C-alpha cells in the first residue's frame, strides 16, 4: 500500500464521519447542548486553546509516566515468571485479579490513598496497562521455538544465556504488541483518575464542562484526547518498528 493510500483512507473516513455528525447536528433537530455542531466544537477548540493545552499536558504527563512504569514493571515480572514457574503460579492470579476489579471501583481508593495530584492517576494508568504488557511478554517468553532452545542447549548455553540470548529476542515482537496496546489504553487510566478527583487534566475539564452543559468544550476536550492518544500510539509504533527492524511488517491491502 502506498503512503498516500495509507493516509488518504483514514482521512476520507474521518471526513465522512464529520459530515454525518454535521448533518445530524444541523438537520436532526438535536439540541446543541446534546450534540454541538462541528463548527461550534472548532470555535471552542480555538477559544479555549490555552486551557485545553494545559489540560492535555497534565494528562500526557500522567500517561507517559504510567506507560513507562507499567512497561518496566510488566517486563520485569514477565522475566521473573519466565525464570521461575513458582513465581508465575503465585503472581499470575494477582495480575488477573488486578483486571477483575473495574478501574472505576479502584479510582476512588487510589485518590484516597495517593491524593488528588498526579500520583493517583499514574498508578491508575499503571494498573490499566500492566496486564497487557505482562501477559504478552510472558506468552512470548513461553512460546520460543523449540528448535532454537534445543540448538542453544546443544551448544552448552546456560539457563541465563538461553533466556537473554534466545528466549528474550524471540519474545520481543510479542512484547512490542503488548506495548502498542498499552500505549492505546494508557490514557484511560489517567482520565478515569481525573474524573474521580483532580484539579487539572482533560478528564477534569470534561467533567467540569459536563456539569456546566458546555458540551462544545467537552467535545473539544474529547477530540484533543483522541488526537493525543493516536499520536502517542503512532510514535510508539514507529519506535518499535525501527527498534525491531528484523521483524517483517505486514501491510493491509
TrEMBL record:
GO terms for cellular component: plasma membrane. It is found in: Cell membrane. InterPro entries: MetI-like, MetI-like_sf. Belongs to the binding-protein-dependent transport system permease family. It comes from Novacetimonas pomaceti. This is ABC transporter permease. The chain crosses the membrane at residues 60-82, 94-116, 185-205, 217-236. It is a multi-pass membrane protein. Keywords: Cell membrane, Membrane, Transmembrane, Transmembrane helix, Transport. GO terms for biological process: transmembrane transport. Its main location: membrane.
Amino acid at each position: 500500500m502506498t503512503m498516500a493510500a495509507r493516509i488518504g483512507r483514514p482521512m476520507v473516513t474521518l471526513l465522512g464521519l464529520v459530515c454525518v455528525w454535521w448533518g445530524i447536528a444541523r438537520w436532526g433537530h438535536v439540541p446543541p447542548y446534546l450534540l454541538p455542531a462541528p463548527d461550534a466544537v472548532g470555535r471552542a477548540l480555538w477559544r479555549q486553546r490555552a486551557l485545553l493545552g494545559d489540560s492535555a499536558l497534565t494528562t500526557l504527563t500522567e500517561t507517559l509516566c504510567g506507560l513507562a512504569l507499567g512497561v518496566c514493571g510488566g517486563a520485569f515480572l514477565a522475566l521473573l515468571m519466565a525464570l521461575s514457574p513458582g513465581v508465575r503460579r503465585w503472581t499470575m492470579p494477582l495480575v488477573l485479579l488486578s483486571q477483575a476489579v473495574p478501574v472505576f471501583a479502584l479510582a476512588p481508593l487510589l485518590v484516597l490513598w495517593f491524593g488528588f495530584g498526579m500520583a493517583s492517576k499514574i498508578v491508575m494508568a499503571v494498573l490499566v496497562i500492566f496486564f497487557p504488557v505482562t501477559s504478552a511478554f510472558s506468552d512470548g517468553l513461553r512460546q520460543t521455538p523449540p528448535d532454537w532452545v534445543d540448538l542453544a542447549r546443544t551448544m552448552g548455553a546456560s539457563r541465563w544465556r538461553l533466556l537473554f540470548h534466545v528466549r528474550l529476542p524471540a519474545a520481543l515482537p510479542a512484547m512490542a504488541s503488548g506495548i502498542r496496546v498499552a500505549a492505546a489504553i494508557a490514557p484511560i487510566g489517567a482520565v478515569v483518575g481525573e474524573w474521580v478527583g483532580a484539579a487539572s487534566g482533560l478528564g477534569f475539564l470534561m467533567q467540569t464542562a459536563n456539569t456546566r452543559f458546555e458540551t462544545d468544550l467537552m467535545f473539544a476536550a474529547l477530540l484533543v484526547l483522541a488526537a493525543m492518544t493516536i499520536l502517542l500510539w503512532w510514535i510508539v509504533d514507529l519506535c518499535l518498528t525501527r527498534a525491531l527492524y528484523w521483524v517483517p511488517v505486514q501491510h493491509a491491502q
